[in-house]
Specification:
This protein has 217 residues and is an all-alpha fold. 65% of the residues lie in helices and 0% in strands. It has two domains: 66 residues, Arc Repressor Mutant, subunit A, CATH 1.10.10; 130 residues, Tetracycline Repressor, domain 2, CATH 1.10.357. The protein contains ten helices and no strands. The longest helix has 21 residues. The relative contact order is 0.12.
């Protein structure tokens, strides 16, 4: 079965209309089960039961369990791209631009299920060989990294940051932010309390290292 193609504009997968709404509801049901039960203990029969469908209907719509997980991963990747759909905003300072990247990083943890889904997929891949191919084709981490790197390169071209290796710089930045994330427990869909001050602190530290002009703060 060919998986649904993710739209280039970062919109919802699959399409609109009543059928699209129904499929999104099934994907939401499957997502909830994967997050609660993991990959091994989530079956198409369980998804079908929760969605009030037959297993045959779920298989007809989505294929195998791995196909279903792959489609959900693709959807979460598209959701994580939302802040970049209209291009990189015209920020006047490196600090504003760094805050933008940091806030996107926060949302990747707090507003989408991409990272926990990637962890579930990686942890189950040794028992389920089909997931190894899924990690290559979906590759959520690489997909996210690629478009945020392009955004950062645009910021470099605009003169906000000095010439540097975008991947190395962002890896450094996300390392700082990840340390801050351990300070507060993370729950999908809930804002991370007191994180704004951590974002600001990390953005300032990043600008000291990478801003094109010496920051005045």
């Amino acid at each position: 079965m060919t998986r649904h193609e993710a739209p280039a504009d970062g919109g919802e997968v699959p399409g609109g209309g009543q059928d699209g709404l129904r499929e999104r509801a099934i994907l939401d049901t499957a997502l909830s089960l994967f997050l609660k039960r993991g990959y091994t203990d989530t079956s198409l029969a369980r998804v079908a039961s929760e969605a009030r469908l037959t297993p045959a209907e779920v298989h007809r719509r989505f294929g195998t369990k791995a196909d279903l997980l792959g489609l959900i991963l693709d959807r979460e990747i598209q959701r994580s791209r939302q802040p970049f759909i209209n291009g990189v905003p015209e920020y006047e300072s490196a600090l504003e631009a760094a805050r933008f990247i940091a806030q996107w990083h926060q949302q990747l943890f707090a507003a989408t299920a991409l990272l926990p889904l990637m962890r579930i997929t990686i942890s189950a891949a040794h028992k389920h060989p089909e997931l190894r191919d899924l990690l290559v084709t979906s590759d959520g981490g690489e997909a996210c990294q690629a478009f945020v790197e392009e955004a950062f390169k645009t910021m470099i071209k605009r003169g906000l940051f000095r010439e540097c290796d975008a991947r190395t710089a962002l890896r450094h930045f996300f390392g700082m932010l990840n340390q801050a994330l351990w300070i507060e427990p993370v729950t999908i869909g809930r804002p991370i309390e007191k994180l704004d001050e951590h974002i600001d602190s990390c953005a300032r530290a990043f600008c000291v290292l990478y801003a094109a002009d010496a920051p005045d703060f």
